[in-house]
Design goal:
This protein has 342 residues and is of the alpha+beta class. It folds into three domains: 112 residues, Arc Repressor Mutant, subunit A; 85 residues, SH3 type barrels; 80 residues, no CATH class. It has ten helices and eleven strands. The strands form three sheets. It has a five-stranded antiparallel sheet with strand order 6-5-4-3-7, with helices on one face. The protein has a four-stranded mixed sheet with strand order 9-8-11-10. A hairpin with a 4-residue loop joins strand 1 and strand 2. The longest helix has 52 residues.
């Protein structure tokens, strides 16, 4: 009798063990399937959204692009920022943010201390062109988007062509920390190539950027330089590395006197031009009493002289056909743009 009970006990234990093994195996397979599905969902939108992009309404697509641009370049995107930019309600902005996270899972993470979404370490653009060429143009024209449903087809049926200048812009991962430092009034550690003969080829320095400048051919950033204790212009394309520091800026735009103070630049036709040429030039620039008067920041007057090809020599010795204008108030202008005078 005892032997029979012993055999039955062994069989019961074996059966329970067998069932337990099956259960553990099934649970393992289920967990593995869930993990694989999660990874697949994270990867799939980056490939599939090219198709999905055209299935989303144009107005919604623009807001998704704005979310991406703000998150990457400003460092965060909130419901209130999105609602204010597009004049929509908070619930509508919440819906757009949810849609973005559904279509690009893993791109954004919620930061409760900022009440905003921030880019994740694996952030990758899905809807927007985040190249500096596109984004800086949007900043300059204060546009929410540069996208249009017509693509490259002229909306008004008019052919327009621009001059293909060389690209002089940094990489987007170099530009983004600079924009974030500017927006958050923070210090920025940079590596910068200077043209100055007195400085090494590449320098590491701390700056405090407060404004971007487009001089027509290249982009600059106006910033306070910790090394020289003054405000200077830095060419964007000469930055090779940037890192936003968790240190507040010690200066601000209001302390930059040459930025805050405007000056009047007075220009007139080159004396080497004929009377007929000077008359044509007066129509060209809508001169009043033979004079052009332009209000410009003191810090930017040198760039304006360059772009307008003004003869800055003391005796007006440059070719008047190439340099058609001269400065009438040289003594007032030269202290702020000595480098532009010949």
């Amino acid at each position: 009798m005892m032997s029979i009970l012993f055999i039955m006990l062994i069989k019961s234990i074996s059966y329970i063990g067998f069932i337990s093994m099956i259960y553990i195996y099934c649970m393992g397979e289920l967990i593995r399937a869930l993990l694989l599905n999660r990874k697949d969902r994270q990867k799939r939108p980056m490939a599939d959204n090219i198709k999905m992009l055209h299935e989303i309404k144009f107005a919604t697509r623009q807001r998704l692009q704005f979310i991406e641009i703000m998150a990457y370049y400003s460092g965060n995107i909130s419901r209130s920022t999105l609602a204010r930019a597009y004049g929509i309600s908070d619930p509508a902005a919440t819906k757009d943010l949810k849609l973005y996270n559904d279509l690009a899972p893993g791109n954004l993470e919620y930061n409760p201390s900022l009440f905003s979404f921030v880019p994740s370490a694996n952030f990758d653009e899905v809807f927007a062109d985040l190249s500096p060429h596109t984004v800086l143009s949007m900043f300059a024209q204060n546009l929410l988007s540069v996208d249009n449903p017509s693509g490259n087809e002229p909306i008004y049926g008019i052919s327009v062509e621009g001059i293909p200048f060389p690209v002089r812009l940094p990489q987007k991962n170099v530009l983004a920390p600079l924009i974030q430092a500017m927006k958050n009034a923070s210090q920025l550690k940079v590596k910068y190539h200077s043209l100055s003969q007195r400085e090494s080829q590449q320098q590491e320095r701390i700056i405090e950027p407060h404004a971007l400048v487009n001089n027509g051919l290249r982009w600059h950033v106006r910033a306070y330089d910790h090394e020289h204790y003054d405000f200077r212009d830095f060419v964007l394309s000469r930055f090779t590395e940037t890192e936003k520091l968790d240190l507040p800026a010690e200066s601000s735009q209001s302390y930059d006197d040459e930025w805050m103070e405007p000056i009047t630049l007075k220009l007139q036709a080159h004396p080497g031009l004929s009377e007929k040429q000077r008359l044509a030039l007066s129509y060209d620039y809508d001169m009043q009493n033979g004079m052009i008067e332009l209000q410009v920041r003191q810090a930017l007057v040198g760039y304006l002289l360059q772009q307008m090809k003004v003869d800055t020599t003391a005796d007006y010795s440059l070719n008047p056909n190439a340099y058609q204008l001269i400065i009438s108030n040289r003594d007032e202008i030269e202290p702020f743009a000595g480098w532009a005078f010949l």
